[in-house]
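Batch 3, record 17
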Amino acid sequence: MGTLPEPFAGWFAARGWTPRPHQLALWKAAQSGESALLIAPTGGGKTLAGFLPSLMDLHANPREGLHTLYVSPLKALAVDIARNLTTPVEEMGLPIRIETRTGDTPQNRRARQRETPPQILLTTPESLAVLLANPEAPEFFAGLKAVVVDEAHAMAGTKRGDQLSLCMARLDLLAPGLRHVGLSATVAHPEALRAWLSPSARAEDVRLVLGKGGAEPVMDLMLPEGHLPWGGHMGIASAPGILARIEEAGVTIVFVNTRAQAELIFAALWKINERNLPIALHHGSLQIEQRRKVEAAMAAGKLRAVVATASLDLGIDWGAVDQMIHVGAPKGVSRLLQRIGRANHRMDEPSRAVLVPANRFEVLECVAATEAVRAHELDGDAPRPGGLDVLAQHILAMACQAPFHPDALYAEVTRCGAYSTLARRDFDDVLRFVEDGGYALRAYDRFRRLFRDSEDMVHIRDLRVARQARMNLGTIVDTPMLKVRIRGGPVLGEVEEWFASTLEPGNSFIFAGQVLRYEGIDALTMVVTRGGDGDPRVPAYAGARMPLSTNLSFRVRSILADPRRWRGLPEPVRDWLRLQRHRSELPQRDGLLVEVFPKGGRWFMVAYCFEGRLAHQTLGMLITKRMERMGYGPMGYLGTDYVLATWSAFEPTDPEHLFEEDILGEELEEWIAESSMLRRTFRSIATIAGLIEKNHPGQEKSGRQMTMNSDLIYDVLRKHEPDHILLRATRAEAARGLTDVSRIATLLARVQGAIRVRRLDRVSPLAVPALIEEGREWVAGGAEDALLAEAAALVDEATDGAEHFADVLAEVTEGVRVRSGVVDRPRRQDRKRRPPPRRFIRSAKGLGG
Amino acid sequence: MTPAPLHLAGERLMLDPMGVVSWPARRTLAVSDLHLEKGSHFAARGHFVPPYDTRETLTKLALATRRYRPARLVLLGDSFHDARGCERMAPADCAALGRILASVEEVVWVLGNHDPVAPVGLPGIAVSSFADGPLTFRHEADPRASGELSGHFHPKATLATRAGGVCRPCFATDARRVILPAFGAYTGGLDVRDPALGCLFPRGGRVFLLGADRLFSVPMAPMRRRAEAAL
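Prediction for the assembled complex:
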């Protein structure tokens, strides 16, 4: 083991620290000019390890100009690291300037940074992309020695990661010999992450440095007092227990799975928080200032607990957190580990975690997850190949920097790990898309954004195109949201547009930790007042629920199938499983148990697939279609994380036939093309690729009818040019995102010949949680019209009983003539005092009769 | 395709799920907001949306004219996305439009805010509004008018179903007026709950959401309750 040179050795010694082996290993890698990936649990001076070689180099060879670039997924993290790094630099008196550059950096500081760059610049992928889309970039980055990628595990395989890796490939070109340094939490696929980081797309060109793991976490399971719930995912029943744990510890993070759950748990805790412990709420839909306030209060030690979603999975190290309470099942091992790591950043002390399952199935999942954590068995997919939409954006950005030859750019791009398998045909099609849309109908030639000269070099058309390209850089696409504002008061955060569309004035809902009354919509804002009565609703957000990981699914099945492993389970759960064995049977690890039983005049079929909610919902759609063909008269289905349940008018006599592999045939293709998932994917791809403009907040509502709706574009493109590059990109991305389809395929292949059908005379114990599960059935895009018909009929029923369409219209018409003379005038006079009639039709009817 | 009858100022109209209105008594077909060449308008600004919108819109319009065989076609404005849209049309699309216009005896171009001048080289008359008997055809609704058909707002409505809200273009109607949904392939919509639209229906009315082969009708709440609530 080496020793550090002065003044670094002295600085470490003055603090009573010794350099950790991984810090020295990164230094060694830097000395030989190698790229390196450090994988270490949180804590342990990971960030300092990444910067130390740069600090030492700048101490030995002081110089002006940019030396090291640090890229973080979070702006706040970049700012925080800048602060933490400035301390040692000042204490050692190093001649180094450290600055941040993010979307928040004021214009004058950006200009100054371009003229006299700091030695160390901390930034985000988006800001780096903007810097690179500039003709001055080659000069700015010429002397760059190292790029440090923080939280690399959270970037690889995402669109922001794609953008970053393309940017790094360009940096390699501008600054030959550039070292790539990655800092990552523990991951399931370290080799793939090395390849992603590598300047050559080859894993072996990145030295792997493993940090020593900290102490093993201490985990325990907490059940609600009294009855263990059969269903539900919110875990409200455990609120008293959670509060007791918060009281016992110094500082607690309470992690939950969804924003809706965060609101409910937060409300439940405050309902019983008689000692008024400072407990805060943190989730991604709250106003950013509000979140920053909570984070600052947490850092300052002013809070005893914060209820948080994935919005706190990454971020600033707080150090002083004593325990992590996870409410609800963790769904994935890596995520659980990451969250446990948030509880304690002191290396040598164990992190403390309490898992709070909300129902019986979740007990199994929590037990499986703690076993997996002890076995160091991580889950998660390897980074997927880079997206073509991000490539489109990058090609345009590179044209803004300097003219390029397509062959050279293709070579450059394929040196990225994320794009190493990119086919030349796809690259050329993306390039054509960037030039003029790349449509078979060559209608846009005169609007080209790029043109080629006689040597086939590609140039940007003009400054206007360049300016527009730079403005639209970035890969974060938001779903349409509405701000929530208290009447005459502050903005609290935002909810998805569709949620607002389901509210009526006067309805109440829980948001930002308070009960609010919906008053109305004003432009892009939802106006609310405090208070409100009735049963408040909770806003849900699309894609909020993570499906059960394959790894956990396997472990849950293994526990179920092997009674010897039930010893670690709580008594009520064991009783439940014993009862199941007695009444029906237990699902086997590699088989599929299907139960069929009558209940309430319908036939239920429950399949224990354990492949996650998404997979079950897709499978439910496919299976009910087949049930229809087989004459079972399916009436509905429900997918939970664990089972698929269907109900039908007639007994499914041949369930084996329903689970044959050919179910994933043409019907699936057809359904996928119509599904809202594909439309969402297309929307994001079309936005990133620059086909449609990003939603600019504060845009006039009246202007919105003029903006482009991606669904309309999708329909037109699919009809007229189904093989267009953007549709190919959409399908490719959806196929990867639709891991549920691959999970169904794996499931069906696994269980062929191992399907056990049990015909019961009533519901089995294991099926109960599914049948009482609240939750919406999932309906494919094609069924929208049926839903509309149903809803319109319901509205009619609720308003004026069984009214016939034509009759209503006649009434409307009759109403006109009566009204024109009699009603209008007095109403105009009384406008202030008399409430308007609730519905036009009813008042017309009254007058007519 | 099942059209729905609607009586306006004593005249019987048929609302069609394609988004057009037929007035059988006068063999008139009204259609609004085609926004032809919207795609190329965006392309000129660097957003290369698929260039098939004009073709798509005209195919649909041809279908509607074949179905109703009108003697008169009234285009309620914003027929082109911008004043130069007509010049940008591809020859094939020009021919398709020509065939549609030739199939009727009379073409009325109500001018809209997007196309304030008459299209060059196309048959028909260009007017700012058009009246026939008790009915008036206008681009943007006049709050005081009665017996009026108009477009401009691209009304859409969301209906809450058990699987979440379903949003569709719609006809917005009351006893005095019909506002047609936008017909063009790339036309988005404005929610009927928006004050700009809602104030035209102070006492509420009915919306007819477009479905694949029928309309879905639901009442529209009076505006004032909503307006007061939002203040």
